[in-house]
Structure formats: structure tokens, C-alpha cells
Amino acid sequence: MRKAIPALLAGSAGLCFAGTAQAAPQTTAGTVINNTASVTYTVNGTAQSSTSTTATFVVDRKVNFTVVTDQSGMTQVNLGQQNAVTTFKVTNLTNDAQDFLLDPDQQSISLGILPGTDNFDMLNLKAYVDSNGNGVYDAGVDTATYIDELAPDASVAVFLVGNVPTTPTAQLAFDSLHVIVAAGGATATKGTALIATDLNLANADNTVDIVFADDDSDGTLYLGDIARNGQGRAYSGYEIGTHNVALTVTKSARIVSDGVNLLFPKALPGATVEYCLLVNNATLLTAATGVNLSDVVPVKTTYVPGSISIGLPGVPGIACVLSGSAEDDDADDAAESDGFTASFDGSTKTVAAHLDSVNGASSIAVAFKVTIN
Predict the structure, then answer these.
(1) Are residues 238 and 252 in the same domain?
(2) What start and end residues bound the annotated signal peptide (predicted)?
(3) Among 196, 222, 242, which residue terminates a domain?
(4) Is it the case that residue 301 has pLDDT exceeding 90?
(5) CB 48 within 8 A of CB 65
(6) Do 210 and 128 share a structural domain?
(7) CATH number, domain at 288?
(8) Closest CA to 18 of 215, 227, 237
(9) What local confidence, expressed as pLDDT, does residue 110 receive?
(10) Which one is predicted more confidently, 9 or 355?
(11) pLDDT at residue 169 greater than cutoff 50
(12) What HEC string does 12-32 produce?
């Protein structure tokens, strides 16, 4: 769900501020520290010694962590793209292992934090933890939705994954990873959010107090995080780099046979003509999806049943489709699996073809035949 954000003063914050890791390992929360004093003295020339009572306390939990954006710039995406990823990193600076709850959301940040203006929402935005530590989102592998038992001074990548809508005007979508520290101690069990000990209370020597020591991760009070609240936030986004491609359709006709001439058939009544629709996408790296073609069979001709074929283009003037598949004439395409479907509507005399995708710098040919009346 999108969360409205007040406008910011330009330059008021960067993506987030990372804390500085401790130079030496911190003493683990819950560690018992005992101390006993000794005394020596002399009575009538005789040396004596004694020990004090033992002073005992346990080390409290100093909760600290950082959340940062772990990528350069926006994630470049295309309209309709599935499983688009922005990457973040969570580092545990607490003196014990901790769980962390992950809350992906979308922000209307138009000034100060990220450049540009947010104008669309990602669909089905989810947060997943990098399970194998390779820094790359692996669908079906990275499935954990919370960070489990992150060791002190350890870091882990978190991916926000969503689907890009097909809205033609879409340009920028800003997202945010909101992280909440949670109780650790039980592997494969999601801990509940930690509650800090009241700092107005005196230290309890035999109790592990919880003290939040985290920074204001987004650098300003108005963006949903403040210092020492056990929460962190970082920001990134998705940018539609290409809204259109150089898609062209070239149509040609070839006399296949006329019943009279074998080598050079002519356009005689009764001759068979092959129409060829060559769909070319000249834009590199960007596919055109959901391509639909429609062609009305011209008057004075009759469609040849079962003559539609779609596939790899052949040599112009010799063969429209070099290799591909023959398509049936009805609109029932439940059995189709090659990404191509076609039909002929006898009432409107229309040939229709659907191509799931035409990849960048590639072509697909669609052919059908008619006879001259």
C-alpha cells in the first residue's frame, strides 16, 4: 500500500546513514559479569586476608542495526515486467543475534530523498531474504520473508520484488524497506518486535534490559523513522526506461501457384497468393509483448482454410516462414504452447494473429493464403 509522505527540503537526507561497526566484538547480551574484591591486613604481626561479597550484573542488550540501499541508482524495468528487484542490506550491530521483521511499502517521495516524481505502484510487492548469500534474487530459492538469527556484525541482502504494470504513462515507482528489530534466540521461528526497557527505570542487575541505540536511518523525522526506535528504513525505486520500441510490420504478397505456370505463376483467377506479415522489433534489449495483428482478406479473394503459419522469417520472395508452426482457424487456442495463436473469422473475413512477445532485435513472420476469385 502506498503511504503518503510530506514534502522534504531538498538535500535534507541521503538514502540513509549507516552506523559504524564496533572495532572489537561487543560483549554478548545476557553475559554474567562477576567481580569480587580481596583484602589483606596484619594483626599482631600475623598476615590476614579476606574477600568481599560478589557484585554481579548481566550485560544488557544494546540494539543497533543499519538498513541501506545496496544498488546503484534505480532498477531499470520494462512495462509488464515480472519479478523486478530492488536490493537492500541489513547489518546487525546489536550485541546478540536478532530477528528482523521486513515491511515493504511504496512511497510518494517527490523531493529530497530520490530524484523525480513517483507516478505508479508496483504490483504484488514482497520482501525476500537472500538465502544463499549470492546477492542475486533467485525465485523459488529466496523465499524467507523475515531475517532469522542474524549474528552480531553480520549483514544480509533483502530483495523487494514486484511486478511492473502495463500503464503506458508509468515512469517512476519509489519503494521502501522498513525493518523492525525482533526477538532472536529461536532458529526458524519469527520473533516478535522488541519493546525497549523504560529508560526512566534504574538498571536491574539480574535482568537483560533492552536499549535501542539505532540511528535515524533516513535522516529526517518526517519520513517514518526516528533515532532509537528499533526501526530502520531505506529507499530505492523502479524506472521505466523504454516506453516504446521501433516495431514495424511489413506486408508482401507472393503468387504461389496459378494452375498454368510452374516456374513463374501469374495472378490469374484461381491462383493461390501467400500474404506475408513481417513483424520486426529494431529496439535492442526491449521486447514488445502482446502483439496482435489483424488483416481483412481483400475482396475478390477467398481465404484458404488452414493456411496460417507463424515462425522464423524465411527468404523474401521465396518463403515467408522458414520454420514455425501451422495455426488452426478457430479461436480456441487452449492447446497452444509456443506463444503464437491465430484464427480466421469467416463473418468479417479477418485473419487475426497473436504473438506473446517479439524480442528486441528480432523478427517474426505470419503467413496466410488466399485464392483469386
Answers:
(1) no
(2) 1-23
(3) 242
(4) yes
(5) no
(6) yes
(7) 2.60.40.740
(8) 215
(9) 52
(10) 355
(11) yes
(12) CCCCCCCCCCCCCCCCCCCCE
Domain assignment of residue 337, given as a range: 247-372
Q: Distance from CA of residue 235 to its chain's centroid?
A: 13
Mean pLDDT of the chain: 88
To the nearest 10°, report the CA torsion of 350, 320, 357, 298: -20
- pLDDT for residue 222 is more than 60: no
- Condensed to tens digits (0 to 9), the pLDDT of residues 243-295 reads 678 899 999 999 999 999 999 999 999 999 999 999 999 988 788 889 999 99
Can you say whether residue 306 is alpha, beta or left, with left for phi > 0 and alpha for psi between -120 and 50 degrees? left
224 lies in the same domain as 294: no
* Same-domain pairing of 142 and 260: no
Q: How far apart are CA 373 and CA 272, in angstroms?
A: 10
* End residue of a domain, out of 242, 268, 293: 242
Grid cell at residue 30:
545476557
pLDDT at residue 1 tops 80: no
Q: Which three cell numbers stand for residue 367?
A: 503467413
Q: Which of 123, 107, 116, 240 is nearest to 171 (CA)?
A: 240
One domain for residues 294 and 199:
no
Per-residue pLDDT at 219:
67
d(CA 217, CA 234): 7
- pLDDT tens-digit readout, 277-290: 999 999 887 888 89
Please report how many Cα atoms fall inside a 13 Å half-sphere around the Cα of residue 55, on the Cβ side. 5
Domain count, the chain: 2
pTM of the model: 0.65
Range 303-334 burial, b when 16+ CB lie within 10 A, else e:
bbeebbbbbebbeeeebbbeebbebbbeeeee
